[in-house]
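Cross-check.
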Amino acid sequence: MQELISLLARDLDPSMKIITTRLDNDDMLLPDFVERIQASARDTDKGVIDARGLRVDTRTRKIYRDTAYQKVPSPFLSVVEEKAGKRCRLMTAYYDQHSLMHRHLPLIKLEFPGWVQLIHESNKVMARSPAEVDTRGQPLDYDYETFMKSLHRTPTQAYPAE
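Predicted model, tokenized:
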């Protein structure tokens, strides 16, 4: 992955910042995630940017504010690098396990919810019982159906207010 992205970045303007973000195929980013990460990247030359997130347990139809990734990066981290151009060798968001990336680059934690991790019958988090998942997040008093429909609305309406 790093080699491919580095190869693609060689044709870009050397003054450009490169941002890579981790995302599993069964999870999602909230509508304004990209804009918020890009805005945060303006203030740093290199670092790991990590937003807060939500967990949606499709088994119990409950929504939680994530509390598991307060000190280490979440699986949805973004890496900012200023290395475009002919000689670039990018680190990318896949350089190491997400929970260890703060050992390689400064960690910038953002308070806005930017991602949704879906907990369902066939993913890793499913190995935990619903009771264990509950302890990994703060339950939100937000209607499941309303939340799922809201993901198709404007960014400011897409997630529960803090």
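The chain has a mean pLDDT of 81. The beta strands are 18-21, 28-29, 47-57, 62-66, 78-81, 107-119, 137-139. Passed to J.P. for a second look.
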